[in-house]
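1st attempt posting a full record on here, be nice pls
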Amino acid sequence: MTPDLERYTPGHDTCAVDFMAARRAATHAGFFLPHLAPGMSLLDLGCGPGTITTDLAAAVAPGHVLGLDQQAAQLAGARTRAGQRGLTNVEFQEGSCYEIPLDDRSVDRVFSHALLEHLAHPARALAEIHRVLRPGGMVGLCSPDWGGFLLSPPLDDAVAAYTRLQQANGGDPYVGRKFGRYLRDAGFADIFLDAHYERYADPSRIAGYLATQLDLAAQPTHAGRLRAWATQPDAMFAQAWVTATAVRPG
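the predicted structure (as tokens):
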């Protein structure tokens, strides 16, 4: 990401990091796991706290895995997690998705979860992914699409406030539905798109996470509505995710 043009909407406070760190490959990269094999090299672009990355590293061991993220504090936690699991085939590096520190045609797989929705220039990031993939290599993408979220009871005003915040920060809350066009324009083939819902058993978890970001953006009214909504016994929050796999021809 380029800090002069973009701002990462979730931020890196404890609430955001804990929320992201609950994600694992089985729950958030399951669509990509069947395309991995031992010995493959892999880049996790926008790896965050590394909980998914370390699972991917275990799946391709002894293949080398690079987790790339622009936030140094996130990477420190990721290295700790890898060490705790005894993984020696993964490294974490600070860097930009617009200037990936890998040679052309050098990696078998690229994975990116919950990154493209925060980018002002997703096409540039996909061009970089295409550059570093070997011919026949595959990319796996996963991002939410806020146009498909299901909240019951409805809470349209608060959801709209968060989408406006993400757009003001340079992101695109509806990027998921655009994966096909972006991948095709970047030169990928064999594009496969899918979508699914993630329902939060405890709605207060995601409501609190979103409310914290609205508080930080000086929107306490919407933040309060989210927190109050989550206390209702019939509250349901189902997040829409779009996934994509595509191959670099050659």
